[in-house]
């Protein structure tokens, strides 16, 4: 709600002269519905890849908003990619026509938690579509970026379709003899919680509990076989005062077959591996190490995320120059990063 309300208020302030908003990755429709409450005159096209979410968004609209909202907000199931420009234009024109808006001149692209490649696609569509005059999008889940088809996960430095994007970062990577590691773990670091989450109110006891939880989870992950997955047992509470034993792992985690999804039993070979690891980290060193790594992640997170965000900004500005579109673009941090770790919203406007 924190994110929905703040982003909606921000868009309401900045897009007053937009006749139509296109919400990319609309999910259950929270953002579009909050915007309708702020200004019932907004026409909103919500695009979402998952059919069940589109259906839920339509239902929520009927249940929670006045009847007029069902005419001014339209949700469609559509996977948004680089070629979605024509589809967006046709859905926007259709909604405008239904609402007797004859001359659709100004549109905005918006999105909350536009994960992985979606926020990059949004930048490209912003430049491509002449009627779109501004973009307000909050990116997330950088670690889910798509790999180029020629790459596979095993290589150290992965090549993603949309990272690095800017010629500046691409050049910098190519000219260094020691290549920076811009792989999926790097992108995972970029989308960790920010260090604000670990402020002074995060007491020593909380660190101890968190370290214990992380270590137990890591142990369970290391013990599983390749075609097994580990699921926490929801009803089993973890407590850092419990000893680190194999029976505790069994009490906290269920093994599943990644092929059939059926439960798999913990067996002697898992226990043997557990005993070997326990010798490696005696005297409760495991949870302490896990928490130290968490703190290290928190201190690197900002650096990694900044690189991803600046790379995108440079790309957008570079493409705008190439296409002779005067654009002003910046990030604004509009959320409280203790509540929402992804707090940067990309704001781009085409200048007259
Ligand atoms: C993290 S959720 C955010 C949902 C919503 N914006 C919100 O904040 O409540 C991201 C949504 O984007 C959708 N999505 C991701 N990539 C997409 C794409 N390329 N085309 C359409 N939808 C996409 C996902 O299905 C998911 O519902």
From TrEMBL:
<protein>
    <recommendedName>
        <fullName>Methyltransferase domain-containing protein</fullName>
    </recommendedName>
</protein>
<dbReference type="InterPro" id="IPR052220">
    <property type="entry name" value="METTL25"/>
</dbReference>
<dbReference type="InterPro" id="IPR029063">
    <property type="entry name" value="SAM-dependent_MTases_sf"/>
</dbReference>
<dbReference type="InterPro" id="IPR025714">
    <property type="entry name" value="Methyltranfer_dom"/>
</dbReference>
<dbReference type="Pfam" id="PF13679">
    <property type="entry name" value="Methyltransf_32"/>
</dbReference>
<feature type="domain" description="Methyltransferase">
    <location>
        <begin position="2"/>
        <end position="146"/>
    </location>
</feature>
């Amino acid at each position: 709600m924190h994110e929905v309300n703040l982003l909606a208020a921000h868009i309401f302030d900045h897009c007053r002269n937009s006749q139509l908003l296109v919400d990319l990755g609309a999910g259950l429709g929270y953002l579009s519905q909050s915007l309708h409450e702020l200004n019932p005159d907004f026409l909103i096209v919500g695009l979402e890849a998952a059919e069940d979410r589109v259906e839920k968004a339509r239902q929520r609209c009927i249940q929670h908003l006045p009847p007029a909202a069902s005419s001014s907000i339209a949700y469609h199931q559509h996977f948004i990619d680089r070629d979605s420009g024509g589809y967006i234009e046709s859905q926007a024109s259709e909604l405008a026509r239904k609402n007797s808006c004859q001359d659709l001149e100004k549109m905005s692209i918006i999105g909350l938690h536009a994960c992985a490649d979606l926020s990059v696609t949004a930048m490209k569509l912003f430049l491509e579509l002449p009627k779109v005059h501004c973009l307000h999008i909050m990116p997330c889940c950088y670690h889910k970026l798509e790999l180029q088809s020629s790459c596979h996960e095993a290589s150290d430095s992965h090549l993603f379709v949309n990272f690095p994007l800017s010629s500046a970062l691409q050049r910098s990577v190519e000219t260094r003899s020691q290549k920076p590691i811009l792989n999926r773990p790097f992108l995972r670091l970029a989308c960790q919680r920010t260090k604000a989450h670990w402020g002074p109110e995060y007491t020593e006891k909380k660190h101890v509990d968190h370290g214990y939880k992380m270590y137990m989870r890591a142990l369970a992950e290391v013990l599983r076989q390749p075609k097994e997955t580990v699921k926490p047992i929801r009803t089993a509470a973890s407590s850092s005062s419990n000893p680190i034993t194999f029976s505790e792992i069994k009490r906290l985690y269920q093994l599943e077959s990644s092929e059939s999804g059926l439960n798999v039993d913990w067996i002697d070979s898992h226990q043997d591996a557990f005993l070997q690891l326990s010798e490696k980290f005696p005297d409760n060193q495991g949870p302490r190490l896990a928490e130290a790594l968490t703190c290290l992640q928190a201190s690197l997170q900002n650096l990694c995320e900044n690189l991803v965000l600046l790379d995108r900004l440079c790309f957008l500005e570079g493409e705008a120059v190439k296409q002779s579109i005067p654009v002003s673009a910046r990030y604004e941090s509009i959320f409280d990063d203790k509540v929402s770790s992804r707090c940067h919203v990309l704001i781009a406007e085409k200048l007259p």
